[in-house]
Specification:
- By secondary structure, this protein is mainly alpha-helical.
- Helix content is 70%, strand content 1%.
- The protein contains 26 helices and two strands.
- It has a two-stranded antiparallel ribbon.
- Helix 2 packs across helix 3, helix 12 packs antiparallel against helix 13 and helix 23 packs antiparallel against helix 24.
Length: 490
């Protein structure tokens, strides 16, 4: 979509063209074409229209591979040693080698393909971008020994080209051309000898497939390995299940997901939605509880689940929020409340707590749950969640306990402000101890914090106590010039 700047530039160009006659335009263009080879190439591509050139995929690949072979790998290795990837942060420059040298090659390949794509010559654009990706894949596979260190630079550049390749493919209407493009991506996804991230290639396939049944069927036809594979990776089961849904092969969808839930629990909510639609509530609850049980057994609740970058805790939250709409609070009270409690313990989201609080039959049940969250959230150092609950419940004595015990939390001033009217002396004393602790080390960088907290103390309202404390600071630390400057405006 063109932006406002592009539209203004277009109007300016049209105005200039309107002032010139054909002879002037031809004369100007002749001179510019002699000087500018990129403009000459661009015009040649434009005049070709959508007609594919006789240059083959192999020709383009050889061209790009030759450019990659001309790279000085020793210089590239030195650039890598001095890059952020190696956790060194001092400058290094040698003959233009840096972390962007390979990315620039990829950008040039994309720019060349884009000229054809802009002229609706999608076959040529796909050919160029595929050749560029294959050249980079081959070069990366040839890296040996220490040169393997910067392998990721080649893979990142390759994926950038493949992202462009997929974008082009979404615009292709020619059935044969589109199927050829999908087949190439499927071959990469199923494991041609390269180190590309399978999840990234899945994103490319999903972009091209969209919700089109024809494309989904074509990909299913090209999958030679996955349909009979026993242990699918997360991206593989995600792709296969999605293809079956688009193709309305729901029996195969359910079979695939159930078989792979242990390895890919991220598929759970979609399966639960399907079971709900099929009015199979009993099976739905069984499946959900089986998955939740496995997730609880994981070594850490925040372990990253590879494909969709959701943690096991995130997946747990998604499943339990779905179950909130399944359990009947009247006839399944125990299960419903238990699910809501577990949801809040995982999410720490105040809105989840508020729904739970309204669902309790008795105040006693709610207060018993407070004991549970105090224990669990303090162990996880999630004091903010506790504060929000007790603020929502107007439990100021509980907030005072948090204020006095957790003075280092970033929302300490907010907690103090919420209860200072009821507990001015206690809040002032806690703040006083906090400021005194900040003043012990002679660190200039802490003085601005001291000034900030003094301003918050002043808001408590004990004016005489505050004035005396400020006088004490100025008397005790009068030699600290920067401190005196910071607190002068308090």
């Amino acid at each position: 979509m063109k932006n406002k700047k592009d539209n203004l530039l277009g109007e300016e160009v049209n105005n200039l063209l309107g002032k010139a006659n054909p002879a002037q335009l031809k004369n100007f263009l002749f001179k510019e074409l002699i000087k500018n080879h990129e403009l000459r190439d661009g015009l040649a591509i434009f005049l070709e229209g959508s007609k594919e050139t006789p240059v083959t995929l192999a020709d383009y690949k050889a061209k790009f591979k030759n450019e990659l072979d001309c790279l000085d790998l020793d210089e590239l290795l030195q650039a890598w040693y001095h890059s952020d990837d190696y956790y060194n942060y001092y400058d290094y420059s040698s003959d233009g080698y840096d972390s962007e040298v390979i990315e620039n090659i990829a950008d040039n390949i994309i720019a060349e393909a884009e000229k054809y794509a802009d002229n609706q010559n999608f076959a040529e654009a796909l050919k160029i971008s595929q050749a560029g990706a294959e050249a980079l894949i081959q070069k990366e596979s040839e890296l040996q020994d220490d040169y393997k260190e910067f392998s990721d630079w080649f893979l990142t550049a390759t994926q950038k080209i493949l992202n462009f390749y997929a974008e082009i493919l979404t615009n292709v209407s020619d059935i044969k051309l589109k199927e050829d493009g999908l087949k190439y991506l499927v071959n990469l996804f199923e494991g041609l000898p390269c180190n590309l991230d399978q999840g990234d290639v899945l994103d490319n396939l999903r972009l091209v497939i969209g919700s089109q049944k024809e494309s989904a069927q074509a990909v299913l036809d090209f999958l030679n390995v996955l349909k009979d594979k026993e242990d699918l990776s997360c991206p593989e089961s995600a792709l296969l299940s999605q293809l079956y849904v688009i193709n309305r092969s729901f029996d195969l969808y359910e079979q695939t997901v159930r078989k792979n839930l242990s390895r890919n629990p991220g598929l759970t909510v979609d399966l639960l939605k399907y079971l709900k639609k099929e009015e199979r509530k009993g099976e739905l609850v069984v499946v959900a509880n089986e998955v939740l049980s496995r997730l609880r057994e994981k070594p850490a609740a925040d372990t990253w689940h590879r494909y969709d970058f959701k943690s096991y805790r995130d997946i747990t939250i998604d499943v339990r929020r779905f179950l909130n709409g399944i359990y009947d609070i009247r006839s399944e009270y125990k299960d419903a409340i238990g699910n809501m409690e577990e949801l809040f313990l995982n999410s720490a989201d105040l809105s989840d707590y508020q729904k739970l609080a309204k669902a309790y039959n008795t105040t006693e049940e709610k207060e018993n749950f407070w004991s549970i969250i105090k224990k669990q959230f303090t162990q996880r150092n999630n004091i903010e969640a506790l504060y929000k609950v007790f603020l929502d419940e107007d439990q100021k004595a509980e907030i005072l306990f948090l204020v006095q015990r957790y003075t280092e939390t970033r929302f300490f001033p907010e907690m103090v402000a919420s209860i200072s009217a009821e507990y001015p002396k206690e809040c002032f004393a806690t703040y006083k101890n906090k400021v005194e602790t900040l003043l012990i080390p002679t660190k200039v960088e802490l003085y601005s914090h001291v000034a900030y907290h003094l301003k918050q103390m002043k808001l408590i309202g004990l004016a005489k106590d505050f004035d005396n404390f400020l006088i004490w600071i100025k008397t005790t630390y009068y030699r600290r010039r920067r401190l005196m400057e910071e607190i002068a405006s308090v």
